Amino acid sequence: MKTLLVMMACLLCASPAFAGYVVIVNAGNGAEVSMSDVKKIYLGKKGAFSNGENAIPITLSEGDAVRGQFNDGVLNKNEGQYVAYWSKMVFTGNGVPPREVATMQEVKDLVAKNPSTIGFIDESLVDGSVKVVGSF
Amino acid sequence: MNKRRTALLVSALCLTLPASANTSDFHFSGFASLVGGTVLDGDGYWARLPEGAGQYDGGLELQTESRLGLQARYKATQELSVTGQVMFRGINDFEPKMEWLYATYYATPDLSINVGRMRLPVYHYSDYMDVGIAYPWLRVPSDAYSLAVTNYHGVALRYGWDWDIGTTTFKLYAGQQNTDPNDLITTIEQYKTEQLYNQSGQFTGVRGIRTTKDYEDMKGIVIDTQIDWFNLRLSFLDGKEKFTFYAEGDYPSTPLFGGTWADTRFVDVSVSMDYNGVFAIAEWNDYDTIYTSWFTSLAYTTGKWTPYIFYSEFEGTLRFIAPGGITAGFEDGVTGSLDDAYNSIGIGVRYNINPRTAIKAEITDFNDDGDAAVFIDEDRDGRTDATAFAVSLDIAF
Question: Which of A47, A53, A124, B77 has the fewest Cβ atoms surrounding its Cβ within 10 A?
């Protein structure tokens, strides 16, 4: 496991050409997902994909650099604004913030397993179990 | 009895915390604001919300606006959850009170129904005005947030509609609420007509009157539209209410006046934009035959700092004449009633220590243009102008 992590870390560090991050859904998810949909799903404005299936957004832990990049670039919110936004949503009973996991590998594994989920990962982690719907 | 039940619930919440802080079916969160303020000029400043909080008349007052909220959400199934929120407010000596308790059922991912005790969603910031971390100001500009009912018991239907360029959330709700005493109205009336002075003319306190307000048949709609950085929110509430006033010592047997049902109609409109760190908002509301109020604000976020400015205004429509007249000697010459009119200018700054912690400071200049006293009136002329300074520490967890 540790070796795998180290290998992954090396892979990440050694491939600046692949420093792109992508938004992924389950390979079996037939819905059309635009970046505008991604934003709405991650801000709790939209609870389902275009095919009517539940949409469950997955994000990384607070303080993670990739999460910061996603929040800034896709959601247009810095971490402070993101927390303020979700405080508002949670304390008004209008939504539950995206589930947080520690690594992009976990994001990928979750999305590969659960057809309702949507996440973002490093491009290099993409395989046949997931489908890329956008990049940032 | 109620208090004991709440205390039990709070203990239960706290006990479950370390064991299951956030499992997939149990979600625990909370927020707190520690607010301290003082009066720079005038006899005293009263922020008034919620529940009459924010009374500053000398020294550094740290209690009345400070608050802690704990929220637990239990997800019973994919579709059904229960949410409870307990508030500890300084204005209530930090005694725990069940703020909300409701069940949510998701019929579809975008259509849900809430049943239970909830916040009355009349204003833009109704739902989260206690959550300081969620807005730039030290407090939501309170001249424009004067409705004397904050929570209700009933049902709410929420539907989120994605129409491509934007999203619109529709909320339909219905319910009722009894407030006895009504803390906000009681305190307003006390300062308006029941101030007490000693022989040398110094303010010594207020008479112990009591007011109650019952709200029934409340039906409301909120249409909240977001198009990228632009937001438009429309809110309308219709219902009936019964106000009752009791002189000191007469509660509950002998009301002095009131006790009849009247129609309630409340409209609120807010327009806001949040673009590249610039946040601007204007919110206006009209409480049919009672008052009109509004505020506007501009805030600019650069790095961890958010300086802001706001202007807010309240103008009473109703000039109620109490039987027996008004004793204080500053009544309107023609109608014998007092008018309520005041405005505030606030300048402040928010600094984010980290995403979940902010400190804020604000100077509020309160101008009392009406002849009714709004707060302590030492010279008994009905004008209660004041300048106040307050700081806060706001957290979310």
Answer: B77
